[in-house]
């Protein structure tokens, strides 16, 4: 691995201005092929680690969690690596082409998406030669445009179920939401025909109910506003399932000084899912909201109830959620509504107080891990992003970040 890093360092040191056009294109081809080979090795490594349960070494359940929490892959990208490894176990030709750099990770992803759990066994039961599809897919991936591979994979799906019962529509439904650095976001959904019809009907009803005179919004903007209105109406109805003892609601945290100061600027308020917004936007939200006062000190609402209560009361939980933001176990970013409030010094064994200082947010899995050998500690003098430290049962610390050389 050190030799590989040295080779990349040497590449980065090259002066590209000294290369002619043809040399730049050759360099691009070689780097692309090498990236494919490295992606193949990543998939192979992650698959083996998943099989042997290596993620448990750092207190995580799956390699998908490791890729998200330790290596900062998006949920979709992490899932794609894991799916690719599972699919390639049954496709030796495609696996070999991937390892040679002739096939991209995106192409392997198309095949992996089409080869669903149980398909290999179903193909064997029906006498369908998966080896022939492996050969065909590999040839298409090597020689034809990217879009052609999806058609070839669909041929397998048609052969697997030419005229069988309708598939379970829930297996075709996916929704991915990506948050951008400024707190805005984008998303993608894949729905079956009936599911899409239901969503389209609701969105269209919202669009048609809001068509003011002189509306200059384009169709996409109208549908975006309709989606938010749908969320507004659903939240206002109050019929949604509870999130950790409270009804789901929009949370915005802002200092009192910024809330009442008309000139407060950008990035002074934080939403419940971690976006940073301006105090002006927070004031706009507060116009139609209940305002909860949380005082981080001794002069207002008490944040320490000592030994009188073991169960964390709501006002302390709100304070812990504001401070921690998500599960504090290394590599985990489970949202606050997935988390328990853990006593750092145990209430019974260690005589620990029920207080903000003695509390930490932990998701259910990592709360269990901490009670079975793992340990989280808090360094109050460290910067906020480095406050929490996690140790394995053997005492070694779980470190998040690139390998040090």
From TrEMBL:
Stated name of the protein: DUF222 domain-containing protein
CDD domains: HNHc
Domain HNH nuclease, residue spans: 315-368
InterPro entries: DUF222 (IPR003870), HNH_nuc (IPR003615)
SMART domains: HNHc
Source organism, top-level taxon: Bacteria
Transmembrane segments: none
């Amino acid at each position: 691995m050190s030799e590989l890093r040295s080779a990349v360092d040497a590449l980065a040191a090259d002066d590209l201005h000294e290369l002619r056009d043809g040399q730049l294109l050759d360099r691009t081809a070689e780097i692309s092929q090498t990236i494919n080979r490295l992606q193949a090795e990543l998939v192979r490594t992650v698959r083996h680690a998943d099989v042997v349960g290596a993620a448990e070494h750092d207190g995580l359940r799956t390699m998908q969690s490791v890729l998200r929490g330790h290596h900062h892959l998006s949920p979709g990208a992490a899932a794609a690596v894991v799916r690719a490894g599972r699919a390639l176990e049954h496709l030796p030709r495609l696996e070999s082409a991937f390892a040679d750099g002739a096939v991209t990770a995106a192409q392997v992803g198309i095949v992996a998406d089409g080869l669903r759990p149980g398909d290999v066994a179903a193909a064997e039961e029906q006498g369908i030669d998966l080896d022939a599809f492996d050969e065909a897919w590999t040839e298409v991936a090597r020689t034809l445009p990217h879009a052609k591979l999806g058609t070839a994979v669909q041929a397998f799906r048609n052969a697997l179920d030419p005229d069988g019962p309708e598939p379970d529509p829930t297996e075709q439904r996916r929704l991915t939401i990506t948050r951008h650095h400024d707190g805005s976001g984008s998303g993608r959904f894949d729905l079956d025909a009936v599911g899409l019809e239901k969503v389209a009907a609701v969105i269209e009803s919202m669009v048609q109910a809001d068509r003011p005179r002189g509306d200059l919004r384009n169709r996409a903007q109208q549908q975006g506003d309709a989606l938010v209105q749908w969320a507004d109406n659903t939240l206002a109805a109050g019929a949604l399932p509870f999130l950790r003892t409270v009804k789901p609601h929009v949370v915005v945290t802002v200092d009192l000084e910024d809330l009442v100061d008309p000139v407060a600027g950008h990035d002074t308020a934080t939403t419940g899912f971690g976006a940073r917004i301006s105090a002006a936007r927070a004031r706009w939200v507060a116009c139609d909201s209940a305002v909860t006062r949380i005082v981080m000190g001794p002069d207002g609402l008490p944040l320490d109830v000592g030994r009188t209560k073991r169960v964390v009361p709501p006002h302390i939980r709100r304070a812990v959620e504001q401070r921690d933001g998500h599960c504090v176990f290394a590599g985990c970013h489970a949202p606050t509504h997935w988390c328990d409030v853990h006593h750092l010094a145990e209430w019974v064994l260690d005589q620990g107080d029920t207080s903000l200082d003695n509390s930490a947010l932990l998701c259910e899995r990592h709360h269990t891990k901490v009670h079975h050998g793992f340990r989280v500690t808090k360094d109050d003098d460290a910067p906020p992003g480095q406050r929490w430290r996690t140790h394995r049962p053997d005492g070694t610390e779980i470190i998040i970040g690139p390998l040090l050389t």
